[in-house]
Amino acid sequence: MATWNASSPKASPCSSRRRTKAPARRPSSESPPPRKMKSMAEIMAKSVPVIEQEEEEDEDSYSDVTCEKCGSGEGDDELLLCDKCDRGFHMKCLRPIVVRVPIGPWLCVDCSDQRPVRRLSQKKILHFFRIEKHSHRTDKLELSQETRKRRRSCSLTVKKRRRKLLPLVPSEDPDRRLAQMGTLATALTALGIKYSDSLNYVPGMAPRSANQSKFEKGGMQVLSKEDLETLEQCQSMYRRGECPPLVVVFDPLEGYTVEADGPIKDLTFIAEYTGDVDYLKNREKDDCDSIMTLLLSEDPSKTLVICPDKYGNISRFINGINNHNPFAKKKQNCKCVRYSINGECRVLLVATRDISKGERLYYDYNGYEHEYPTHHFL
């Protein structure tokens, strides 16, 4: 690099500045011809944005990704890439199957560090479900009342009443009931969900005042007085640890699912669909696969849904059918019905036919709106 010496007459700062301005004093005849400037349209046409370059580079780098399960690279719109190991998996090749593309980061089974949940002890199960203690005298009194109801004369009116909602019939063995609840507690713990047998209204989500059946588009059917008594009876049985004969099992294809651990009669109340109540507009980009419609309002911004991602019960694990497949439709043995109960919207799961022991429970996720995609279901 050249240095400036103050003793040199050729290196004065002033003369240096004059030399830089000298070309500007040239005669007009010697000035260079004006340069032709390109238009902005020509410049933009030849330029490639950095974002597009990065996208092209990403597409090139992942163009040879194949599914780790089937080895095929076809169906790239259903090929999920793990954000940690960059391996690819088809949604329908995963176990359990992924119904739709997850929102946000996604990790494969090997990178998610899923650890098996230990079997809970009897004391922890009772604490998990907050089982209330009760005396045997109360049991015998309720049993005698139920027996008297069954011994009524079989008139036509009574036969019609048999089509009403039936209370659940728990397993007689208390140890077996404890084991059934243990499977539910294990599944909820594995997914980080707390047990709740009622709707939750969390600050920042939809308030309880928003859940009014009068806002339902076209009106909502009201639960009859008899069925309401049956529902209240079942809820008190749940609080005492008397649950329907159901177990939660893990299937490599369907994930957690529910099986009957004993016979269940047609029109038997199974469970109420529970979880956090929120506006649908807040959950439109939620990737939870178990969001349930609670209220369909004339104003779409006031439509409510049940989100069992933090709180829930056994209804969270009852799987839906593929309503595009005639064979899958035959598996349906439950239905999901929305009722107006004391002016509020509630969702109940009810058996639609007799269910035998070992049979899995299935229902159609879709109501009359038919907006939930089920073509990926088994």
From TrEMBL:
Keyword Nucleotidyltransferase belongs to the record: no
Alphabetical UniProt keywords: Chromatin regulator, Metal-binding, Methyltransferase, Nucleus, S-adenosyl-L-methionine, Transferase, Zinc, Zinc-finger
Polar residues: bias regions: 1-15
Group of enzyme by EC: transferase
Entries under Pfam families matching the protein: PHD (PF00628), SET (PF00856)
InterPro entries: ATXR5/ATXR6, SET_dom, Zinc_finger_PHD-type_CS, Znf_PHD, Znf_PHD-finger
GO cellular component assignments: nucleus
Family annotation (CDD domains): SET_ATXR5_6-like
Record has Zinc as a keyword: yes
Residues of the PHD-type domain: 64-114
Subcellular localization: Nucleus
Residues covered by the SET domain: 244-366
The protein, known as: [histone H3]-lysine(27) N-methyltransferase
